[in-house]
């Protein structure tokens, strides 16, 4: 039996060959490392991003562009930890099918890391800890939870749900 799958740049067929199983193992390891790599990137961004540097160049940029940058930075809170939640979901899918308890653990981990990141920002000289930012992070996780939950459990024709289910199917078949 030959099983073929196409994921982003990975194309492989499982036909009993060691090479295909090796690629699946690398793919599994890559997917499992994504949330932790992303957490490191969040930590580095929180540590080294200085918003006051943007103020120093504000005299050279027109006002509408500055407003757009400000809005995008605020929207990043909604997106940043929602992405972390999705990466934890993918992490769990590399082991078995998604269950509601996995969703809960992924949400708690993403929110907990959001709290840790806000506390971390308290100790960075040019950053601040903000309850509003924490609320935005929680809302972002909640929005992505709704999307993933409905896509995976409720909608049979969802492309997102199909993609997530295929992660488990492909990685279990090896």
UniProtKB/TrEMBL annotation:
Domain VanZ-like, first and last residues per copy: 22-148
Any Pfam family matching the protein: VanZ
InterPro entries listed in its UniProt record: VanZ-like
UniProt keyword terms in alphabetical order: Membrane, Transmembrane, Transmembrane helix
Residues that span the membrane, as ranges: 20-44, 64-92, 104-123, 129-148
The protein's name in its UniProt record: VanZ family protein
């Amino acid at each position: 039996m030959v099983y073929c799958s196409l994921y982003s740049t990975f194309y492989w067929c499982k036909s009993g060959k060691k090479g295909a199983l090796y690629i699946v193992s690398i793919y599994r390891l890559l997917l499992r490392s994504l949330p932790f790599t992303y957490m490191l990137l969040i930590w580095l961004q929180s540590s080294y991003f200085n918003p006051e540097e943007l103020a120093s160049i504000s005299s050279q940029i027109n006002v509408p562009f500055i407003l757009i940058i400000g809005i995008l930075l605020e929207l990043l809170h909604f997106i940043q930890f929602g992405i972390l939640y999705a990466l934890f979901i993918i992490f769990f899918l590399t082991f078995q099918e998604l269950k509601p308890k996995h969703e809960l653990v992924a949400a708690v981990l993403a929110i907990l890391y959001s709290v840790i990141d806000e506390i971390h920002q308290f100790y960075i000289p040019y950053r601040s800890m903000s309850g509003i930012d924490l609320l935005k992070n929680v809302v972002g996780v909640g929005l992505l939870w709704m999307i993933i939950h409905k896509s995976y459990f409720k909608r049979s024709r969802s492309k997102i749900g199909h993609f997530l289910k295929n992660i488990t199917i492909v990685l279990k078949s090896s």
